[in-house]
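Format notes (please read before filing issues)

Several people have asked whether sequences and structure tokens are stored in separate files. They are not. Every record keeps both together, in the order shown below: the sequence lines, then the token lines. Line labels are part of the format and must not be stripped during preprocessing.
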Amino acid sequence: MNDLKNIADIQLLVDAFYTQVRQDELLGPVFSAVIQNNWQPHLHRMYAFWNAALFSEPGFKGNPFAKHAPLPIQAEHFTRWLHLFTQTVDEHFEGPIATDAKHRAHLMGAMFQAKLSRMNDGFGKVIV
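Then the structure lines:
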């Protein structure tokens, strides 16, 4: 297996991952409630996000936490998301950038959970 090296690899990763998400009993309903059947805009944003995160390529603008904060998600959703993401990376890639992608996903999941916990505990509910 090769490492992630370009946008084509990111597209493969993102497409394979979200195929799993759509079929997942826990995550699928959360995503389909928001995305419904219009997956292309979300996939394109994820290509840009991971391309920026892994290769420092410009093109992603947005606040991922603000998009996820209103969703009915708990720790088990993050655990499942990370499991599927890690599994998908491991099925297709190996190397330092693949390892970095998994590391970044874990950091993002931990950050989102910490922020959601603070919001749910009554701390600053404003999302910017």
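For reference, the curators noted about this record: The radius of gyration is 15 Å. The domain at 7-120 is CATH 1.10.490.10 (Globin-like).
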